[in-house]
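User: Can you fold this complex?
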Amino acid sequence: MHYPERVLVTGAGLAGLRTVVSLRERGYAGRITLLGAEERPPYDRPPLSKKVLTEGVDSVGSVGSVDPSLGADFAALDVDFRPGETAESLDVGDVGDVGDAGGSGGSAGGSRAGSGGSAGGSVRTNRDKCGFDRLVIATGALPVALPGPGRQRFLRTYDDALALRAVLRPGLRLAIVGAGWIGAELATAARAAGASVTVVEAGPAPLAAAIGAAVGGLTARWYADAGVVLRTGAPVASVEVGGLALADGEWLAADEIVTAIGVRPAVGWLAGSGLALADGVVVDGGLRASLPGVYGVGDCAAFWSGRFGTRMRIEHWDTALQAPQVVAANVLGGSEVYDPVPYFWSEQFGRMLQYVGRHGAGDDLRWRGDPAEPTWTACWLSGGRLTAVLSVGRPRDMLQGRRLIAGRALVDPDRLADPATPLKSAIA
Ligand code: FAD
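Assistant: Here's the predicted assembly.
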């Protein structure tokens, strides 16, 4: 097996870190360089909108510390981790005058054996130029901003979460734009901190874009029960100093504004590189990009799914965790395919939501349990097969549903609708 000499990974989030760990676990002993735009070592994002915002806040408002670090040991991994170093451009084919990816390390020995073929190039950063034989792009995603001169906060990085935590206090008038997953979790945390919270949503219901208005609308009551004002069908025109200008001309005063209307893949630095980009780095089922030796993984990558017959870009933690194993295998000459049943969870208003699968607008919706009760499950069916499951406080439904979806099992809708019958017993 001829392994590449130098692997460069851009983006030190979960997907980037798991890529370098997986390379080492597979016996790769060549040079690895990991570029991270943030000054911090890799950390986990899910706690940022949950424990990081709420834990450690005592009655007088001083904060303790909740550490979301992923605990990477780069010395043990023998990885040249470069915090604060941002990839700014890619030149595939330019391998001549550089060779410093991985530092001045010389031969890494072990299973390293040659250049791994003609693929290669270089990435120019804010500090350096890094040559590579294989490049893994794992630059994640960046929040979408609203127009206007007012200050809008976001919740994407650990620093964002620390800054937000520092301002959350009883009586603060907090406006959150967007009733998606992040908006709901932030509203939960802000209420726990005593803030006066208004969530403004352009769509007809919370989570409408993610799971449809019929199911998302059921969560509206949770906002009211928590004392959060929810305004749906209320697009924001601009963020102004001291509040929000709504599209219908109404003014909503706020001390702090958080924009949580979604993210876009962080691929601006690849413009002009010749790499195919379309809502992220276009990759095949093996996570290979359109230029030789280049791969994409995590939030920034739009991969081809044979299972669903479409290209998908999944902004889920589970994908950032699992897909790097496929990338690492293929960087080392393998032919593995990443084609998951997508999985996502959210903790909001004291509930655990888990969504697995992928449903279309025309899929048949069935309930397991009464949505007015604390726990229930929504199931989507197409052609007699389960396509997706949203469980609220019913983790077994999610686990069993994931297996049914993966196995493309035909299900009996009546047995499926009985919450006392295990979902796995609904196979027709
Ligand atoms: P990222 O985590 O975005 O990491 C990419 C890294 O690359 C970043 O550190 C970035 O600074 C860096 N970078 C960007 N551009 C460059 C560049 N040009 N050069 C070098 N470095 C660069 N998912 C769930 O399934 N459940 C949850 O409950 C959940 N909660 C979440 C809560 C929050 C607040 C957020 C923000 C996300 C949450 N997610 C959740 C989503 C999940 O965290 C992401 O899908 C996951 O972090 C994606 O990992 P990634 O490594 O692909 O991208």
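Residues 58-62, 96-117 have pLDDT under 50 and may be disordered. The two ends are 46 Å apart (CA to CA).
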